[in-house]
């Protein structure tokens, strides 16, 4: 007895009461902290709802792998791996891809997608009452496992799981997305929506399958809006205003319910399949009421956290909270000085720049630094609006002004009254809209389409374009007097290829801002990745860089962003190097026509890319549409 106690370091009674359980614990990733016990039975892991350990990781397959405990309970055995992304672990500092049949001892960590799991052994003490033969009144629950459950009849556990998911969200949009996903899984429902408190706009949506056009239950929404109480309709076909709808009959919807909270309404509907998996009654409606209150509360907290992080970044950089232009290059410093000088004035500003250079962000910065910062900032893209609707969107229309005008509509000038109006792609305005724009800028008054009432407006205008407006004036497609009104103060936003020294700072900013919502934390870039980003010509400018970083975060893994995470075309699309000039005799000057040099450059780019025009345009540092025009000018194919 004494020898045994000496070997174990514990009294014999304690040793006998200790129970060891092999567990799999999520160390990093969106589900950090969750765990699941392992025994001899298979445990499926993946993103699907039917998995024993369901991971909210977009880089994990619906069914990624199956594991179980070894017969002696000392290790985890991988039964199968079916995921697209590999499962790997580190052995002596080297990344090793795992295979089916391998056994991982306690303490081993392995990664799939953006999630790392660890094999651990947890010791539990058996209750004394059980050893003495008396009935035990002790109840034990694994709190992490309860919160991690995706389904079950325990509504308290389901509500705790929702709170756990929402607390991890870093933005209001992420809260709404997580809440609707939870409702589809837990209620269960065919579709879940979060609506504004008026029921007019959708804040977030999720569905169990692809759903076409389907009206909401107007009967239940009317009751919620009128009485601000939660309602459940157990038989939608019994409702007069829904029984005849083909969409309801074709999908065979059974019921719907909605619960109001501050600033939002939580709506869920279900069909026969969902009705067979769960009981939709008073308890379920109570669960939805509690969930709505939780979403409203934690949504506000998530938005506050987002604002605090943005404020902290602004304080760290020594800039005002609204000034979010990123970069320390000479071109960016010059632009920031320009924005700070013009902001306090009411002068009209015209911004020139290629697509994706941040013209709207520059306009927002001017507004945020101006005396109008408390008033509305309204942005409109003139190129994205149909020509027959452009005047209506700009100046508004009266009821009955044209077919479909069922109500009076305020244009962007009216909505921006007292504040700032940003008009992107102003060069796309039709001649009629240009004429009305000129009158608005001259008189500060407008009349709605189909109306006669003169409306006085106070708006500071910031316009932007990537086109040569002076050339358009000479071609007769843009009014010269309007151009004079627009370019009171003007500047050009530099493309990204002219400020390559800002690329590391921009990439780090996008990694930080996108990493939380994607679920991947990147702390560093490899030198090769930064070199590739620095060599690329960036025809899409900052917007293209953001998309490249987002793709790398989604498809890559690990804390370091490597060149393998980047799109392959980036590594092959380095800018052309200039060939060394041939030595000239003293006093000799060789001059070649510009068109000849341009034709040779285009030929070389097409040869280098195997005829791929998109990549050739990237090599030349021009838009694809510009390349097509030059091919036509030079008679090339």
Commentary on this structure:
This protein has 24 helices and 25 strands. It is an alpha+beta fold and 637 residues long. The strands form six sheets. The protein has a six-stranded antiparallel sheet. Strands 4-3-5-6-9 form a five-stranded mixed sheet, with no helix packed on it. Helix 5 runs antiparallel to helix 6 (172-186), helix 18 (503-518) packs across helix 20 (541-555) and helix 23 packs across helix 24 (624-634). The model is unreliable at 1-17, 126-132, 311-323 and 574-589 (pLDDT under 50).
List keywords for this structure.
637 residues; alpha+beta; six-stranded antiparallel beta sheet; five-stranded mixed beta sheet; globular
Write the layout of secondary structure elements.
Elements lengths: L1 H7 L3 H6 E11 L6 E4 L4 E4 L6 E2 L10 E5 L5 E7 L5 E5 L2 E4 L5 E3 L3 E4 L2 E11 L2 H5 L10 H6 L6 H13 L4 H15 L4 E6 L5 E6 L10 H10 L3 E3 L12 H6 L3 E7 L2 E7 L1 H6 L4 H36 L12 H13 L6 E4 L6 H10 L8 E5 L5 H9 L16 H4 L4 E5 L6 H13 L1 E2 L8 E2 L3 E6 L3 H7 L4 H7 L2 E4 L10 H16 L5 E2 L1 H9 L5 H15 L4 E2 L6 H5 L21 H15 L4 H8 L3 H11 L3
Parallel strand pairs: 3-4, 17-22, 17-23, 18-19, 19-22, 24-25
Antiparallel strand pairs: 1-2, 1-11, 3-5, 5-6, 6-9, 7-8, 7-10, 10-11, 12-13, 12-16, 14-15, 15-16, 20-21
Helix pairs in contact: 5-6, 5-10, 6-10, 18-20, 22-23, 23-24
Quick synopsis:
By secondary structure, the chain is an alpha+beta fold. It is built from 24 helices and 25 strands.
């Amino acid at each position: 007895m004494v020898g045994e106690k000496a070997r174990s370091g514990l009294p014999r009674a304690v040793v006998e009461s200790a129970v060891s359980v092999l567990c799999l614990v999520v160390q990093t990733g969106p589900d950090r902290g969750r765990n699941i016990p392992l025994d001899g039975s298979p445990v499926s892991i993946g993103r699907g709802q039917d998995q024993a350990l369901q991971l909210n990781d977009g880089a994990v397959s619906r069914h990624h792998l199956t594991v179980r405990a070894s017969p002696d309970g000392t290790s985890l055995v991988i039964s199968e791996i079916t995921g697209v992304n590999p499962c790997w672990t580190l052995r002596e500092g080297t990344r090793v891809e795992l295979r089916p049949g391998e056994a991982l001892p306690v303490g081993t960590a392995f990664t799939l997608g953006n999630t790392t799991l660890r094999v651990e052994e947890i010791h539990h003490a058996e209750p004394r009452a059980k050893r003495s033969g008396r009935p035990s009144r002790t109840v034990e629950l694994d709190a992490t496992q309860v919160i991690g459950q995706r389904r079950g009849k325990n509504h308290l556990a389901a509500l705790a799981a929702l709170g756990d998911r929402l607390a991890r969200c870093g933005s209001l949009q992420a809260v709404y997305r997580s809440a609707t996903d939870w409702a589809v899984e837990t209620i269960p429902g065919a579709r879940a929506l979060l609506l504004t408190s008026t029921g007019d706009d959708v804040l977030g949506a999720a569905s169990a399958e692809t759903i076409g056009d389907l009206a909401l239950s107007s009967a239940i929404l009317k009751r919620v809006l009128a009485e601000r109480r939660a309602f459940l309709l157990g038989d939608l076909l019994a409702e007069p205003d829904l029984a005849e709808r083909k969409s309801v009959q074709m999908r065979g919807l059974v019921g719907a319910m909605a619960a109001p909270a501050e600033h939002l309404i939580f709506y869920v509907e279900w069909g026969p399949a969902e009705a067979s998996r769960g009981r939709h009654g008073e308890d379920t409606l109570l669960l939805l009421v509690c969930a709505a209150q939780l979403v409203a509360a934690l949504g506000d907290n998530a938005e506050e956290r987002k604002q605090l992080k943005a404020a902290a970044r602004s304080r760290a950089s020594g800039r005002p909270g609204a000034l979010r232009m990123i970069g320390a290059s000479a071109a960016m410093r010059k632009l920031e000085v320009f924005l700070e000088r013009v902001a306090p004035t009411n002068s009209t500003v015209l911004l020139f720049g290629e697509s994706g250079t941040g013209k709207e962000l520059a306009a927002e910065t001017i507004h945020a630094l101006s005396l109008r910062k408390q008033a509305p900032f309204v942005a409109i893209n003139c190129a994205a609006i149909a020509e027959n609707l452009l005047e209506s969107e700009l100046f508004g229309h009266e009821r009955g002004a044209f077919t479909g005008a069922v109500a009076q509509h305020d244009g962007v000038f009216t909505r921006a009254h007292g504040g700032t109006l940003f008009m992107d792609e102003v060069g796309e305005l039709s001649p009629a809209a240009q004429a009305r724009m000129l009158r608005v800028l001259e008189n500060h008054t407008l009349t709605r389409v189909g109306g006669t009432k003169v409306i006085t407006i106070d708006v500071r205008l910031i316009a932007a374009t990537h086109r040569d407006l002076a050339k358009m004036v000479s071609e007769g497609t843009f009014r010269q007097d309007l151009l004079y009104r627009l370019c009171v103060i003007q500047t050009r936003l530099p493309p990204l290829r002219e400020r390559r020294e800002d690329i590391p700072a921009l990439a780090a900013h996008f990694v930080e801002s996108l990493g939380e919502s994607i679920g991947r934390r990147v702390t560093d870039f490899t030198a090769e990745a930064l070199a590739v980003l620095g060599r690329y010509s960036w025809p899409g400018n900052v917007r293209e860089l953001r998309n490249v970083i987002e793709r790398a975060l989604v498809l890559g893994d690990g804390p370091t962003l490597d060149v393998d995470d980047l799109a392959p075309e980036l590594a092959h699309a380095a800018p052309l190097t200039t060939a060394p000039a041939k030595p000239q005799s003293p006093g000799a000057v060789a001059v070649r026509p510009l068109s000849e040099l341009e034709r040779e450059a285009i030929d070389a780019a097409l040869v280098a890319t195997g005829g791929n025009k998109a990549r050739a345009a990237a090599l030349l540092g021009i838009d694809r549409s510009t390349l097509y025009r030059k091919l036509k000018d030079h008679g090339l194919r």
